[in-house]
Design goal:
- The complex is a heterodimer.
- By secondary structure, chain A is mainly alpha-helical.
- In chain A, 86% of the residues lie in helices and 0% in strands.
- Chain B is mainly α.
- Chain B has one domain.
């Protein structure tokens, strides 16, 4: 402060000072565009040190600040606070809902899986049963076919037997007839041995049977 | 050029950062409230207070208008210019106010937001070279209003009022009991200490912001004064030689000041929240 006082004492006339101050201010404004530089030219010095100021500053600050608090509180912070609160609420609700949905989905999935497993077991059981039924049917068919075949063979055999008996019967009958006829011819004419043999061979040949030993 | 340097080199750096009254009236409210029997009606710093007030009152509600107009989900989606203010507000609400104010957060948050944006705007406006520009038109406006102890003091006193009135409102006798945290026979010792603590908090709040804001400006003025001192003391060439590092240094300091402007606005807001929280959240 001593230095400042000394300078104050040595200052030129007020008019001259003002002019020069302005010149410096212009130079500083053009050259440096720093607040300090411009202020470096100001310096009329209210003389109260760094604590310069009075109740006037306090009143202005009070009025302007309270005005800002009131206007912003009414027209800016109110709507903003509402928005922030409802966003918070919305996010919380959305998250809760998402969690609920997810839990529900998980439960439903478990239920579905259970049902799928049940269905699969049922399908396996059905297939198994079908196979078993098929086996039974197959066996029954086989048995039946076997029986039928046996029956057919039996019948065929019986028929063959009957046919054979009939043939033998016929043979006997025919043989008897021929013997009767032969005996008649023998009686009709005297036979030499050669004729005899010839007769018998002829009779046998008529029968169409192979010669018996 | 020589005469220019001659005059300017002499002034104290303080002269360049204190307020310069534009209009004063003769009022005598005592040497403390009105030093020299005058009261400042208008000064360069007061013009900046008014400018800050106008900017805030006009621009912030404009930016926030979408919250009143946009409906449903659209109103909840952060976007646009509102998001700039909104993100700061949301940070202050969630990270600064809520940890200290708990259930009272939304009651006090509008005040806290106002404090932050008011201090920030005034701090930042003080960094603009408005004085240099206004000098071209022969007037003297601009400057940092928060580099005035009366302005920061007013804000700090408002914080004190918020602390005490809301402490009494929500705590009542519990709040008063906090002024004597020990046994009753120690009250004559504890109550004055607590009261001094309350005043000290307020005082520190005012001085912290004021000192931080004025210090950077003084530093800039001192640095730039070197040019003029070298110019007058040694010669114009020396002045120019000194100018290069000084201007570079001033740029760096100015960048630091931008940071400090934000930081101090935050600290003032943080401490205001903390102090109000200490008064109204008594169950700790």
């Amino acid at each position: 402060m001593e230095q400042a006082d000394a300078v104050d004492a040595a200052r030129p006339s007020a008019r001259e000072t003002t002019m020069k101050r302005k010149a410096i201010e212009v130079a500083a404004a053009l050259g440096l565009i720093l607040p300090g530089a411009a202020m470096a030219a100001g310096g009329d010095g209210s003389g109260s040190g760094p604590f310069a100021g009075d109740i006037g500053n306090a009143l202005w600050t009070l009025v302007i600040f309270l005005l800002v608090v009131w206007v912003l509180g009414r027209f800016a912070w109110g709507p903003l606070l509402n928005a922030l609160q409802s966003r918070e609420r919305f996010i919380r609700e959305s998250l809760e809902e998402a969690k609920k949905d997810r839990d529900e989905a998980a439960a439903q999935l478990a239920r579905h899986e259970e049902r799928m497993a049940e269905a699969r077991a049922e399908a396996t059981a059905i297939v198994e049963e079908g196979r078993r039924d098929a086996d039974v049917v197959k066996q029954r068919i086989e048995v039946k076919a076997q029986e039928e075949a046996d029956k057919m063979i039996e019948r065929a055999r019986r028929e063959i037997g009957i046919a054979k008996q009939t043939a033998v019967h016929d043979l006997y009958a025919q043989a008897a007839d021929m013997a009767t006829e032969l005996a008649g011819r023998i009686i009709d004419k005297e036979l030499d041995p050669a004729t005899h043999t010839e007769l018998i061979a002829g009779a046998i040949g008529d029968l169409g049977l192979p010669e018996r030993s | 050029m020589g005469s220019l340097l001659e005059i300017s080199s002499g002034g104290s750096p303080l002269d360049h950062v204190v307020q310069h009254p534009l209009k004063e009236i003769q009022v005598d409210l005592g040497g403390f409230l009105t030093p020299g029997g005058v009261m400042t009606v208008l000064s360069d710093q007061i013009t900046m207070l008014i400018l800050a007030g106008i900017l805030l009152v006009v621009l912030v509600p404009r930016a926030m208008r979408r919250f009143s107009t946009d409906e449903g989900i659209e109103g909840l989606v952060p976007k646009g210019s509102a998001n700039f203010i909104e993100s700061i507000c949301e940070y202050l609400r969630a990270e600064v106010a809520r940890p200290v104010l708990h259930q009272h957060t939304d009651r006090f948050i509008p005040y806290i937001w106002s404090v932050f944006f008011f201090v920030l705007t005034v701090n930042v406006l003080g960094l603009l070279p408005i004085p240099a520009i206004s000098a071209l038109f022969g007037t003297h406006v601009g400057g940092t209003a928060t580099a005035n102890i009366w302005a920061t003091g007013t804000l700090a006193v408002l914080t004190l009022i918020m602390m005490v009135t809301n402490g009494l409102r929500f705590g009542g006798t519990t709040y008063l009991a906090h002024f004597c945290p020990g046994p009753l026979w120690l009250a004559p010792l504890l109550v004055p200490v607590e009261l001094i603590g309350l005043i000290a908090k307020t005082f520190a709040l005012a001085v912290r912001l004021f000192a931080n804001m004025i210090a950077g400006h003084i530093l800039l003025a001192v640095l730039l004064g070197f040019i003029l001192q070298a110019g007058t003391g040694i010669g114009a060439g020396a002045g120019l030689g000194v100018a290069v590092p000084v201007v570079l240094g001033s740029v760096a300091i100015s960048l630091l000041e931008i940071f400090v402007a934000f930081l101090q606005a935050f600290i003032f807001t943080f401490l205001t929240s903390l102090f109000i929280g200490m008064s109204v959240v008594l169950d700790h």
